[in-house]
Design brief:
Blueprint lengths: L1 H18 L4 H14 L8 E4 L2 E4 L1 H10 L4 E6 L11 E8 L7 E7 L12 H17 L30 H4 L8 H11 L4 H12 L9 H17 L1 H9 L10
Antiparallel strand pairs: 1-2, 3-4, 4-5
Length: 253
């Protein structure tokens, strides 16, 4: 009980820091998620988008681990998929126990219902959506998951992913309804599990500025495009590149 109370208080505190003043209904929803499922704001288990709570893929996997999920399987539905048009459908089954018949969820993805940021990765998006739906069904979560949304744009802010600057237009501004540059970069960091500090250092070097917030919007856009391409083609090489920006640790003899 004490642990639940601490988690609840921490979630409410971090939610206010991440999303500002929240109304009673929104906080009530967060309390329910905290107590019933143990979801954490600090770990990015939930996101607030347009005033509504959404669970994340990471949050669902951590919930399954805590509940000692027996296993998850997924399979491509070839008859419903079309590689030429990047249309994919997956079936996922979650087994809560060794004797469970399984909870089934389907996920689909194609260029029309995914963000431009994941263009070319529709197959992985479809599998993630299928797994998310199966997990939500298995553990009785009525919330939609972030990954099931048609686009990753919106008014959400991630507490787990640090902001790149304090309101500088080069990283926070949006244009013609496109995702903000900060959101695009934060999404790539989460998607490919990159170190935010090293990414910022690499970005500043790429843009030729002392800090990322000093770079122009065009330069930041170019960097995001380069980062997305490199991460998709050769993540290992990207990790090596990022590690070169790590500050050396001073060894005292």
């Amino acid at each position: 009980m004490k642990k639940q109370t601490r988690t609840l208080r921490l979630n409410c505190s971090l939610a206010r820091r991440a999303w500002g003043d929240l109304d009673r209904t929104t906080l009530s929803g967060l309390r329910e998620l905290s107590v019933a499922f143990g979801l954490s704001v600090a770990l990015g288990d939930v996101q607030l988008i347009d005033g509504r709570w959404y669970v994340t893929h990471a949050g669902l996997l951590r919930l399954a681990l805590r509940r000692r999920c027996h296993g998850i399987t997924s399979s491509l539905q070839k008859d419903l998929s079309n590689a030429t048009s990047s249309q994919w459908v997956f079936k996922a089954t979650v087994y809560k126990t060794s004797h469970s018949k399984g909870f089934v969820g389907y996920g689909d993805a194609d260029p029309s219902n995914t963000s431009p940021l994941v263009r070319g990765a529709e197959m992985r998006v479809a599998e993630t959506r299928a797994v998310n739906r199966a997990l939500r069904k298995a553990y009785g979560i009525g919330l939609c998951s972030v990954e099931e949304l048609g686009s990753f744009s919106g008014t959400s802010k991630s507490f787990a992913a640090p902001p790149l600057s304090n309101g500088h237009p080069s990283s926070n501004g949006s244009s013609n309804g496109r995702p903000r540059l900060r959101d695009q970069l934060c999404f790539l960091i989460r998607q490919y599990n990159l170190d935010p500090t090293l990414v910022k250092a690499y970005a500043a070097d790429f843009c030729g500025t002392a800090t990322l917030k000093e770079a122009s919007r065009d330069l930041v856009e170019s960097f995001i495009s380069e980062l997305a391409t490199t991460a998709k083609k050769d993540r290992d090489n990207l990790i090596c590149k990022l590690n070169s920006y790590a500050q050396p640790t001073e060894v005292k003899l």
